[in-house]
Amino acid sequence: ELVYKIQGQTIILGACSTIRWLIKFLFVSMNFTQTLPSFSPPCRRQDVPVLTPWLAPIVWEGTFSRDILNAQYVQRNLVTGVVTFAVEKYWFVIYFLSANQYFLAGHPVNFYLFTDNPEKIPPLQMAPEKRLLVIPVQNDPRWPDISTSHMDIINAYIHSHFQHEVDYLYSIDINSQLLAPIGVEIIDALVATISSWHLTPWYRNKSYERRPASRAAIPEGHGDFYYTASFYGGSVAELYKLTRACSEGLRADREKGIEARWHEESHLNRYLVQHKPTRLLSPEYYWDAELSAPPILRTSQIYKDVYDTQNDSV
Ligand SMILES: CC(=O)N[C@H]1[C@@H](OP(=O)(O)OP(=O)(O)OC[C@H]2O[C@@H](n3ccc(=O)[nH]c3=O)[C@H](O)[C@@H]2O)O[C@H](CO)[C@H](O)[C@@H]1O
Ligand SMILES: [Mn+2]
To answer: Which residues hold UDP-N-acetyl-alpha-D-galactosamine (predicted)?
Structure first.
């Protein structure tokens, strides 16, 4: 009889929860469309991947609302830093004029310019929320190749200065020009830009270092996107780890007398295969001027290398 009673209770309990579940289901299905905000069409794009297999967003023009992101960003009271180098060659005018106008417009940004020739910098009128800080650097004899020293220098300055001054830090090539706004949609813990070569038939020209002797080596069959070293960033803590790992890899390679295929870019890619970026920027965010732009790019190339800058000393 006891067993029978218990079974009866179970049946009643079971029926109760089924009814409750049914009511809930009806309620939810009736209200579902009302509880979800409706997004206006520009938030969707069918022609490009917008999510990686590790569920990081890939930012393309037309996939986000800058107003929503700006409002969220402002609440966090953040300062973003940008590091850039002008050693031996000088391209700063176009870069800073365009960055001043388009880079995180309306938000505080510290631009850190590493240069071996501070007195050559012309007076630049920056927006009130933007600061230009010039940091003298010597052409370091330990790093005969200019761009391979970047990781080492950034790492040292994160430790000594940037960690106290900014929340997020981005590294951007100075021989480039912004042609459209770059906003807070780039802000995340670890952010990398898919190389523009990826969208062209010549994508094989930019590929990983495969030789096992290099610390930048990525074994055959491994890897996901190929990222450019011209534009990457993230939180100061993540950038500290990234620049330390890359600089150690570059140093180890140099001691062995080996140079990775695309120098610091190979080491960056090696790091990012192991430590997946939390956000990817589409090649719209850095377009190589030597490549013609495919129609998939919505904006006319947000950022691009200034074409042949070799003799351009502005
Ligand atoms: C010269 C150089 O670094 N090339 C790197 C860069 O090519 P890139 O074609 O992107 O080289 P780049 O000429 O844009 O140089 C990269 C950045 O280094 C700085 N800079 C460069 C030259 C110079 O004399 N003074 C100076 O300050 C400057 O900030 C410049 O924006 O990407 C390649 C992969 O795609 C490789 O990783 C190369 O190592
Ligand atoms: Mn470049």
So the answer is: 85-87, 90
Enter the ipTM: 0.94
Q: Of 282, 266, 275, 286, give the one whose Cα is nearest residue 240.
A: 275
How far is the C-alpha of 168 from the C-alpha of 189, rounded, in Å?
Answer: 8
Ligand-binding annotation for 288, yes or no, is yes
Structural contact between residues 294 and 199, judged by C-beta atoms closer than 8 angstroms = yes
Query: Rounded to two decimals, what is the model's pTM?
Result: 0.86
Which atom of ligand 1 has the smallest separation from the CA of 146?
Answer: 3
DSSP 189-206: SEEEEE-GGGGSTTGGGS
Q: Is 274 exposed, middle or buried (0-12, 13-18, 19+ CB in 10 A)?
A: exposed
Alpha helices in the chain (DSSP H): 2-35, 66-75, 92-102, 149-157, 163-165, 236-256, 264-274
Q: Which ligand is nearest to the CA of 196?
A: 1
In sequence order, the 6+-apart residues with CB closer than 8 A to the CB of 308 are none
Predicted confidence at residue 198, as pLDDT, reads: 87
Distance (angstroms) between ligand 2 centre and the Cα of 173 equals 5
The encoded tokens of residue 28 equal: 């939810």
Cα end-to-end distance, the chain, whole Å: 95
Q: Which amino acid is at 160?
A: S
For 265-305, how does the pLDDT look when each residue is reduced to its tens digit (9 = 90+)?
A: 999 999 999 999 999 999 999 988 788 878 788 765 555 55
SS3 content of the chain, % helix, strand, coil (to 5): 40, 20, 40
265 is catalytic: yes
Find the residues whose C-beta lies inside 6 A of ligand 1: 84-89, 146-147, 173-175, 229-230, 262-265
Ligand 1: centre distance to CA 289 (Å): 14
